[in-house]
């Protein structure tokens, strides 16, 4: 008679308490630059707690919590303040896991992330390090000449600027006829010395510029542009 021996494999599953799961969370928020000075960055640009590089407005950022495989029970609160102690909020808190914010005013904004485990009976929460966003004061430098001759040197009339939130420029000829106009969306394109698809003659043209900085400074400029080929 054959005898059978039965073997049982017992799997012992141990569930970690929520507090131990919580201890494994690495909270390391960061921000990715979507647009700065109205322009998309040519290469990835991130901001971490401890970074202190001044930035130009308008600055559009996407904030990430920096948590790998976060539990579904986590609740997020992004906080924004004028001071490092977070006593003076300057924006309403955001409650998404990731959030997008555009900064248009000069000065500093302090950002931190508060994460709470809603699946625990205990009050488990963690506060991240602080991300500091510093928007520089505005600048506007306007040249008075350019040479659109196709040699690749000074072919386009462009202003140099920092932290402008609005901009408009209009060029007129000596008879007051409008030659070209561009705004904030085309500020980096400038003027190539053409009107209605044709090159304008050499000479002196008149330009009117109105702009506003992130620091509230209003720029109003009227002056000459010399075209030299």
UniProtKB/TrEMBL annotation:
It comes from the Bacteria. InterPro entries: T9SS_type_B. Pfam families: CHU_C (PF13585). This is Gliding motility-associated C-terminal domain-containing protein.
């Amino acid at each position: 008679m054959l005898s059978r021996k039965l073997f049982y494999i017992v799997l012992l599953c141990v569930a970690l308490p929520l507090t131990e799961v919580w201890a494994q969370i690495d909270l390391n928020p960061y921000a990715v630059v979507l647009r700065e000075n109205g322009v998309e960055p040519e290469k990835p640009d991130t901001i971490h707690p401890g970074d202190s590089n001044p930035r130009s407005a308008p600055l559009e950022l996407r904030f990430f919590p920096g948590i790998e495989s976060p539990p579904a029970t986590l609740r997020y609160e992004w906080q924004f303040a004028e001071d490092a102690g977070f006593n003076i909020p300057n924006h309403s808190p955001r409650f998404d896991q990731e959030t997008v914010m555009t900064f248009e005013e000069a000065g500093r904004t302090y950002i931190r992330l508060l994460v709470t485990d809603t699946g625990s009976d205990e009050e488990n929460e963690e506060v991240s390090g602080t991300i500091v966003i510093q928007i520089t004061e505005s600048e506007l430098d306007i040249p008075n000449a350019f040479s659109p001759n196709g040699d690749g040197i000074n072919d386009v009339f462009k202003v140099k600027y920092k932290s402008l939130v609005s901009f408009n420029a209009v060029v007129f000829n000596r008879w007051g006829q409008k030659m070209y106009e561009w705004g904030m969306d085309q500020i980096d394109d400038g003027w190539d010395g053409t009107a209605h698809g044709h090159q304008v003659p050499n000479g002196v043209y008149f330009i009117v510029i109105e702009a506003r900085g992130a620091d509230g400074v209003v720029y109003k400029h009227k002056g000459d542009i010399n075209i030299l080929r």
